[in-house]
Amino acid sequence: SSVASAVFQGVRALQVNYLNWGPAELEVLLRVLPQCEGLVDLQLGGNPLGDTGLTQLAAFARVGGLRSLTALAVEQTEAGDEGLCALADAMLEGHLPKLHKCWAWGNPRLTPRSVGKLREAFNSGAMPEIGFIQFNSGDRVFQLGDETDEEDEYS
Predict the structure, then answer these.
(1) Contact of 23 with 59, CB cutoff 8 Å
(2) What's residue 53's pLDDT?
């Protein structure tokens, strides 16, 4: 209906944290998101999306679905290298050009491969407005950026 379309068009922030959503629920959400033309903040933290979900999100970014996004939260989503690398590749390819903040901590299965990809995405220039990417490697949390381009470690 026109009312539903008007509501979705006005959505700027969508917080669907800790709803126990997996890839199937994310797939349904990704069918609706194109109607959210003003979406700048997408928070998916705490949902068991895994690598499949983050790969779906990266594919959605590749078809222009996240071009206006300035904040993305995918912390504690049970993602590993495959999912975070897919997301980092979408960043590197310029599909999240307005991204300013990305939270990806709480995904302890990351290895130097995905950590390197996130660093590469941060430093690439493909996201000119990027302020920080926060992630963890093992039990250490790292943040690339913020007020400086230095890498800070938080224990």
Answers:
(1) no
(2) 98
Q: Please state the pTM of the whole predicted model.
A: 0.89
| 85 and 113 Cβ atoms separated by less than 8 Å | yes
- Strand intervals (E) in the chain: 13-15, 41-43, 71-73, 101-103, 132-137, 140-145, 151-154
Residues 6+ apart with CB under 8 A from 134: 75, 102, 103, 104, 105, 141, 142, 143, 144
Give tens-digit pLDDT for 94-114. Answer: 999 999 999 998 988 888 898
CB 131 within 8 A of CB 100: yes
82, 107 contact by CB (below 8 A):
no
What residues form DSSP beta bridges with 136? 141
**List of long-range contacts for 114-118, beta carbons under 8 Å, 24+ apart:** 114/80, 114/81, 114/84, 114/85, 114/88, 115/142, 117/84, 117/85, 117/88, 117/89, 117/92, 118/84, 118/88, 118/144
Say whether 79 sits in a helix, a strand or coil.
coil
